[in-house]
Every structure is written in C-alpha cells, then in structure tokens.
Write a structure and sequence with these properties.
Rossmann fold; 5-stranded parallel beta sheet; 38% helix
Length: 130
C-alpha cells in the first residue's frame, strides 16, 4: 500500500463535515497525518454553515447528510465563496451530488486514505491558483 506523504497537505486548512463520529475522527486523523490543519469534524448543519461562511478554508470534506438534514446549503455556501470541496458519501445519487458542481469530486464511502488525500491535494492546489 502506498504511503501518504506526511507533508502533502501541510499548507491546507480542511473542514470535515461528517455526522458519523468514528468516520469523522478517522478522516481527521488521515488528514492530520498528511499535514493538514483540520477544522472539525463538524456534526451539525448549523455549525457547518457558520464555518463554511466564516472560516478561512483551503478545502472541505462534505458528507451528503447530517442525520436527516441535507448539506446542499453548505455546498452552495462553499461554491459561493470559491472554496473547493469533495463529497464523501455513501449516497452517491443524492441532491448534493447532482447539485451542479462539475469540479466537485464525489468519493464513495469507504475510500482509501490515499484517494482522499489526493483529491484534497487537488482541491488545495486549485484554491491556491484562485
């Protein structure tokens, strides 16, 4: 299995929006091990909206649902601010994944850490070019 560079995401501030505690903690550990500064994991829609509107972010890992609530409004806020995000979900066919963000990568759960880090590295690189 390919090793993740411990500094791959060193300049990135990544918000993790995930309602499953263990999945969120696993994502945070993977991203921290790759050198990212991790905000979250966030489990509530209201907190995700506030951070998406106010926080300085390089990229976001966004689950499609937080409990029964859709994160479509968070995706819109991120798109409005020009913050790239990946959708990490078990619900590949959802409103968010069809939400009109053609540059947004959709990564089905579960995914290898290398795939997540690679997708976020692309997001951070795209953000730095803006």
């Amino acid at each position: 299995m390919e090793q993740i560079n411990a500094h791959a995401l060193a300049a990135c501030r990544i918000l993790v929006v995930e309602d499953e505690v263990l999945v969120g903690l696993d994502l945070a550990m993977i991203l921290t091990d790759a050198g990212a500064t991790v905000i979250g994991p966030v489990q509530s829609l209201s907190e995700a909206l506030v951070l998406a509107a106010e926080e300085e972010l390089s990229a976001v890992v966004l689950d499609v649902r937080l409990g029964p609530a859709s994160t479509l409004s968070v995706g819109r806020k991120l798109a409005d601010r020009g913050i790239p995000f990946i959708v990490y979900t078990g619900q590949v066919e959802s409103d968010l994944t069809r939400g009109g963000w053609p540059r947004c990568k959709i990564i089905p759960k579960p995914a290898l850490p290398q795939k997540l880090v690679g997708a976020l590295l692309e997001c951070c690189a795209a953000k730095s070019l803006m």
